[in-house]
Backbone:
């Protein structure tokens, strides 16, 4: 991630329905480099749909989503290189080893020195000793940690994480929290959805509450 | 070759090699396809009880029926493994061109089908003591399997997003692959009865034309299906 570039995400009037059910309703959001946005809400409040839209996986029915670098809108290719997305699902092939999975996703981003990058990112959540294990042999929490590492491989400037702390032990939650704080300090934007508001990400944290598809600024 | 094309082919290779690696580890597709195809072959052999003369007429149908239905079993798994743990989403949000994903999948399906056909063809030749013109058979097989893989990959992706995936795939796929399979059965029949390339050139031409159509339409439809 470039340290001196100013990133921003602007969402204006985003709406999304599934059939008759309106999941996101005329939602506005603006985030800049250094922001850590935590979005809280009950199950089914629209957190995952919002994150899926922010990651460009789901297209909104209405509204605009703009990603800028130094004030200029960036193209689709650059957007995909800018965003790191961690979903409920692990995005990992069960029959492959952790290393093979990470190598595969690293190659999709044409990362140079793949092995070196994997080694470096693995240290974020202490998963170096799991690299040669098959995913199918890992526990839920271990898979979650690998999934987080996968989303960091291409050094994204915008991190979008759906309930990253669920299933993690206290040590991993603490490591992840520290990483996200230092990530924001170096100019990154983190958007984190959670159904609880337990984790405190310091003074850069912007708290939001989502309910019935509408986003409210929290304290 | 410019840098863009180099990256494009690299992406195809990455998807192909990942699929092969997953298959080597799990053996999920190859085992089910091979067992199903071999059983089909054996059942048809008992049902028709072919003599050396009638074998020349019924064996092409037996061969391609076994390949077709065994292959559908494999196609059902092609995209299911991408969807189970959300891996497809991880690929879609990457900068990789979506048609490179399509062609990578086509290539891995083709590799699997080549292996299945090589085994089944070897068995048919041994069972019925056939003497065939290999260049002609290779051409016919290549045309049929390329068509099967291109169209099959598209419908495997479409069906994977539907609830009744295993029912949906044959319903969508079989009517459209029929011209290629009919061509393959007719051409193989002539080859089994002693024909060479010149005797099946019309069928090869027909299959090539249909494949061109598949190549023109399927990557586009695949992109649309992924967006939806």
Residues:
């Amino acid at each position: 991630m470039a340290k001196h570039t100013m990133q921003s995400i602007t969402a204006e009037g985003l709406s999304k329905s599934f059939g008759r059910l309106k999941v996101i309703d005329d939602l506005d959001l603006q985030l800049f480099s250094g922001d850590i946005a935590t979005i809280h809400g009950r199950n089914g409040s629209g957190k995952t749909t919002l994150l899926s839209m922010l990651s460009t996986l789901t297209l909104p029915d209405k509204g605009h989503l703009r990603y800028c670098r130094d004030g200029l809108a960036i193209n689709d290719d650059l957007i995909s290189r800018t965003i790191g997305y961690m979903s409920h699902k692990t995005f990992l092939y069960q029959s492959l080893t952790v290393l093979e999975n990470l190598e595969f996703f690293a190659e999709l981003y044409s990362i140079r020195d793949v092995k070196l990058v994997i080694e470096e990112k693995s240290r974020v959540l202490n998963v170096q000793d799991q690299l040669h294990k098959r995913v199918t042999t890992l526990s839920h929490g271990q898979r979650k940690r690998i999934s987080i590492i996968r989303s960091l491989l291409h050094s994204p400037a915008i991190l979008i994480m759906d309930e990253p702390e669920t299933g993690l032990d206290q040590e991993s939650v603490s490591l992840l929290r520290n990483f996200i704080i230092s990530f924001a300090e170096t100019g990154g934007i983190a958007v984190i959805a959670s159904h609880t508001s337990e984790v405190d990400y310091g003074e850069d944290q912007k708290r939001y509450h989502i309910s019935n598809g509408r986003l409210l600024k929290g304290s | 070759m410019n840098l863009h094309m180099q990256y494009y082919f690299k992406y195809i290779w990455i998807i192909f090699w990942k699929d092969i690696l997953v298959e080597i580890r799990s053996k999920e597709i190859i085992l089910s396809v091979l067992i199903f195809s071999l059983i089909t072959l054996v059942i048809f052999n008992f049902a028709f009880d072919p003599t050396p003369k009638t074998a020349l007429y019924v064996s092409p149908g037996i061969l391609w029926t076994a390949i077709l239905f065994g292959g559908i079993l494999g196609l059902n798994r092609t995209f299911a493994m991408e969807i189970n743990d959300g891996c497809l989403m991880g690929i879609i949000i990457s900068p990789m061109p979506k048609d490179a994903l399509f062609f990578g999948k086509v290539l891995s399906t083709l590799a699997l089908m080549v292996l299945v056909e090589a085994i089944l063809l070897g068995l048919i030749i041994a069972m019925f003591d056939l003497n065939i013109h290999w260049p002609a058979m290779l051409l016919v097989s290549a045309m049929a399997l390329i068509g099967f893989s291109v169209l099959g990959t598209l419908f495997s992706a479409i069906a994977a997003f539907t609830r009744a995936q295993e029912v949906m795939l044959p319903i969508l796929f079989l009517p459209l692959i029929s011209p290629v399979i009919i061509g393959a059965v007719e051409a193989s029949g002539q080859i089994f009865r002693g024909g060479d390339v010149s005797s099946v050139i019309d069928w090869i031409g027909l299959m090539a034309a249909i494949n061109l159509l598949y190549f023109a339409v399927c990557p586009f439809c695949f992109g649309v299906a992924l967006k939806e």
